[in-house]
Every structure is written in structure tokens, then in C-alpha cells.
Known about the structure:
Elements: H1 2-36, E1 47-56, E2 62-68, H2 72-82, E3 95-104
Antiparallel strand pairs: 1-2, 1-3
Amino acid sequence: MKKLVVILGIIFIGLSSFTSVIDKTDKVLVKQIYAMLDDLPLEIEEELLVEVRLIINEQNRIKVLFVEAEDPLVRKLIRKRLDKNTLAIPFKVEGAYRLPIRIKV
């Protein structure tokens, strides 16, 4: 019984540290995306909720799959700013992401 408790404890600790690494990665990724979108040339005085679906390859290069926003100009500017751009972070974040982003312009 003690062995089972120890094994479950090790698994729990391993999984919790793994999820904290994923959470940290996502926070860094979102922060980097916000930095890329910081100075969009828009003249709207409101907060926009935009959903961006993207894939990041092994070189941390972004490929935008889809941008969902009401304003077509916002969609175009976000896609243009992010697509084929490279993330400047010291670790790989390869994978597909669906990010809700709030932009105050």
C-alpha cells in the first residue's frame, strides 16, 4: 500500500510540474503575441476580442490559420502582423494554439 501511495505521489508531482510548465509556456506565448500586436495602426476607441488560431513550428515560426474579428481591417492587420513572424522566446512552443486576445485600440 505504501508503494502505491509513493507511486501515485510521484505521478502527481510529475504531472503538476508538467502542467505548470505548459501554463508558463502559454503565458510567455500570449505575452509575446501581445507584444507583436502592441502598435497596430487602428483608430477604434474600444476593446476588441479577437480569436486567433495559429500553428507554431519547430523554429517558433508562426503560421496564422484563422483570425476571428468583426472588423475585416482588424482581421487583416492581425494576420499580416503575426503570419510568418518568429517568436523571440528561448524555448520551443511547437503546436497548434487557439488564443483569445483582447486588444484595446
